[in-house]
């Protein structure tokens, strides 16, 4: 199996799991079709996420096309140079969102790594860019923005998807204004930097330069650039105030040879820059360390597990495929949590009834003994339900546990069993008990009856 597979692809693309390759449709003249603006989830890749039962963290990289994103997250995943496929020409290599097929341990969770289609490549779509990057923000616990050279105003323009996402969430849920509580940590990686960042002629760190220069508000006097500057200033404010933390790192240009840059995985040990590989190793280690925390939920008390994240992905893709829709953060989480509980409820009810059926082979039994066994069974299955879902939504948890108790055994005000699945089983035990008692009485009374008749 490949080290990475597509989690989300343009809707007109397909994934051949056996051949481990993306199938791009052709036009009647034999040329490849452009990627569709809408997206779809690759169900086979969701199994990677579904296999994580506990808390999950998501490290995701975004940024302009052909800027070395796949190389960096490959280093984060397993230290290799090409765990996520690299490209050596001007065409985009990654379409949609790809996921590493292996996970790595985090501080209190299991980490998955996502690589995202680049912004503004010639086969791309502004609509799909917005949707993919909104997905990246909402799914990730640690977001990396990867760009080349010194940060410019254009880089902030390319991040307008964050502003759009914040606006859609605000318009849907006015109570969901503190993005810092659920937005990911943010790291800006500056690639191919050979200039020393300075402020007032004094050398500073990349982070200091980011905060004091790049993210410092521009003057907004009226003029041709007024609206663009206002938008960029809003982007600056969002980056500083909405992400959990903001950080910045820089990487030097690895080599001056175009051939070696095109095939960097093959020439890693022969690169001109002695500082590049150590810097990459240090940053990859930092990302694994700082990004090693579980994804924070959208509301206090919730827990993001593998099944929860796997349920969120198709829900978000469906919403973001329609640009007219907002992102209903609060309702979406409730829907996903409720669907998970519904599924687990059906599994638990089937198990409950199957184990009650197993008890039938011991019928008839004393009513007190049957009630004791059912009480133990009910408690165990309720505990298994809660552990299996682990969503942290107390009101939904209570709703489904109450439903389970009401559907299995209903008692009246005198504590007499009057309904539910167990009521039927209890009646069958009573009927069999009555029949057995009649049979025993009949056997015992037979000699007496015979004597009386004679």
Outline the secondary-structure elements.
Blueprint lengths: L3 E7 L3 E3 L4 E3 L15 E3 L1 H8 L5 E7 L6 H10 L18 E4 L3 E2 L4 E7 L9 H14 L2 E7 L4 H6 L1 H13 L12 E7 L6 E2 L2 E2 L2 H9 L11 H17 L3 E5 L7 H5 L13 H15 L15 H15 L8 H31 L7 H23 L4 H15 L1 E2 L5 E3 L1 H33 L1
Order of helices and strands: EEEEHEHEEEHEHHEEEHHEHHHHHHEEH
Question: What's the tally of helices?
Answer: 14
Alpha-beta content class: alpha/beta
Oligomer type: single chain
Amino-to-carboxy terminus distance: 87 Å
Mean model confidence by pLDDT: 86
Describe the sheet with the most strands. Answer: 9 strands, mixed
Shape: elongated
Tell me the fraction of residues in β-strands, as a range: 5-15%
Q: Unreliable segments (pLDDT under 50, ≥5 consecutive)?
A: none
Strand elements, count? 15
**Radius of gyration over all CA atoms, rounded:** 30 Å
Q: Portion of residues in helices?
A: 40-55%
Polypeptide structure, described:
- By secondary structure, this protein is an alpha/beta fold.
- The chain has helices at residues 43-50, 69-78, 126-139, 153-158, 160-172, 206-214, 226-242, 258-262, 276-290, 306-320, 329-359, 367-389, 394-408, 421-453, and strands at 4-10, 14-16, 21-23, 39-41, 56-62, 97-100, 104-105, 110-116, 142-148, 185-191, 198-199, 202-203, 246-250, 410-411, 417-419.
- Strands 1, 4, 5, 6, 7, 8, 9, 10 and 13 form a 9-stranded mixed beta sheet that branches. Strands 2-3 form a two-stranded antiparallel sheet.
- Helix 1 (43-50) packs antiparallel against helix 10.
- The longest helix has 33 residues, at 421-453.
- The model has no long low-confidence stretch (mean pLDDT 86).
């Amino acid at each position: 199996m490949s080290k990475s597979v597509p989690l989300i692809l343009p809707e007109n693309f397909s994934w051949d799991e056996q051949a481990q390759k993306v199938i791009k449709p052709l036009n009647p003249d034999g040329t490849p079709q452009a990627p569709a603006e809408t997206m779809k989830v690759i169900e086979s890749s969701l199994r990677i996420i579904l296999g994580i039962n506990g808390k999950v963290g998501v490290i995701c990289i975004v940024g302009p096309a052909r800027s070395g994103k796949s190389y960096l997250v490959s280093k984060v995943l397993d230290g290799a140079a090409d765990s996520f496929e690299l490209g050596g020409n001007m065409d985009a290599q990654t379409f949609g969102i790809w996921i590493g097929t292996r996970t790595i341990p985090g501080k209190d969770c299991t980490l998955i790594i996502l690589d995202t289609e680049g912004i503004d490549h010639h086969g791309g779509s502004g609509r799909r860019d917005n949707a993919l990057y909104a997905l990246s923000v909402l799914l990730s616990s640690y977001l990396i923005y990867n760009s080349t050279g010194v940060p410019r105003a254009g880089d902030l323009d390319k991040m307008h998807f964050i502003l759009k996402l914040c606006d859609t969430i605000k318009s849907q849920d006015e109570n969901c204004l503190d993005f810092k509580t659920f937005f990911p940590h943010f790291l800006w990686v500056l690639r191919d930097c050979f200039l020393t960042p300075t402020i007032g002629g004094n050398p500073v760190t990349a982070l200091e330069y980011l905060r004091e220069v790049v993210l410092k508000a521009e003057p907004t006097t009226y003029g041709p650039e007024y609206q663009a500057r206002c938008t960029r200033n809003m982007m600056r404010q969002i980056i500083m105030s909405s992400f959990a933390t903001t950080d910045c790192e820089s990487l030097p240009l690895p080599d001056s040879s175009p051939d070696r840059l095109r095939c960097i995985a093959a020439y890693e040990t022969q690169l001109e820059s002695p500082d590049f590989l150590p810097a990459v190793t240090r940053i990859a280690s930092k990302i694994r360390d700082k990004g090693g925390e579980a994804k924070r939920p959208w509301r206090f008390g919730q827990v993001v597990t593998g099944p929860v994240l796997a349920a969120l992905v198709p829900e978000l893709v469906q919403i973001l495929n329609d640009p007219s829709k907002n992102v209903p953060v609060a309702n979406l989480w409730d829907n996903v949590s409720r669907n998970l509980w519904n599924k687990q409820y059906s599994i638990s009810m089937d198990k409950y009834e199957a184990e009650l059926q197993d008890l039938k082979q011991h019928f008839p039994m004393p009513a007190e003994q049957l009630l004791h066994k059912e009480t133990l069974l009910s408690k165990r299955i309720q505990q298994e339900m809660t552990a299996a879902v682990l969503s942290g939504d107390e009101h939904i948890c209570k709703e489904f546990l109450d439903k389970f108790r009401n559907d299995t055994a209903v008692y009246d005000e005198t504590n007499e069993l009057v309904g539910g699945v167990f009521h039927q089983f209890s009646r069958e035990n009573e009927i069999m008990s009555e029949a057995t008692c009649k049979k025993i009485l009949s056997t015992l009374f037979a000699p007496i009856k015979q004597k009386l008749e004679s």
